[in-house]
């Protein structure tokens, strides 16, 4: 039986993924910050016939991550899958953003991913495994008022592309999923935008018309079933039943000489 550690699994997308993996026969290590919510997910997985244990730890705290990973490994012997889903939001325009709002988001999303990956690798490298990082279109395209969140999610992409090459020889795949789903974290933003566009008598933009957490969980379950060793270093967008494959940034203009470059740039904008 394979073991999966899911961070931020006490609600939303993380909870749906934990439930999906429990139904698929995984031993699920459920991580979160609140004991009651963790216990609720663990009980739901067990009631559905699955196996699960709860681990309360802040992924932004490296010592807490170390203790959690060691406890999971001691309980199950090995860790086959890491899904780093833990996240938080502190939205504000850059000029008004506080240092703590910047640091808090980077610590949970980006540093948390690093701490979890690094601590889990010793329990994964002997037999291979899968790592999934939950990124966002904010990291791919930017998002006004979310410079901290966008930077953290973009940083995850660099981790995926680097570690895909670094861990290939250990039969460890790493991919990223950019989900669009209605969750406790996204609902306030979407409800605000619905009201905003309704006042204008305009439809909600397609970008904000999102699917459900269970759609993301089903995709994750299917992704983990694929045994192709080359299925690594990829970024997938998931919105409802719509799945999008993103590619690495590619050079679009390369010219010898700065003057020649900006001449070409000017003509490029005129086209």
UniProtKB/TrEMBL annotation:
One of its GO terms (molecular function) is oxidoreductase activity. Residues 2-185 form the Ketoreductase domain. The keyword DNA repair does not apply. InterPro entries: KR_dom, NAD(P)-bd_dom_sf, Sc_DH/Rdtase_CS, SDR, SDR_fam. It comes from the Bacteria. PROSITE patterns: ADH_SHORT (PS00061). One of its GO terms (biological process) is monocarboxylic acid metabolic process. The keyword RNA-binding does not apply. Keywords: Oxidoreductase. Pfam families: adh_short. Belongs to the short-chain dehydrogenases/reductases (SDR) family. PANTHER family: 3-OXOACYL-(ACYL-CARRIER-PROTEIN) REDUCTASE (PTHR42879), 3-OXOACYL-[ACYL-CARRIER-PROTEIN] REDUCTASE FABG (PTHR42879:SF2). This is SDR family NAD(P)-dependent oxidoreductase. It comes from Paenibacillus contaminans. The lineage of its organism: Bacteria, Bacillati, Bacillota, Bacilli, Bacillales.
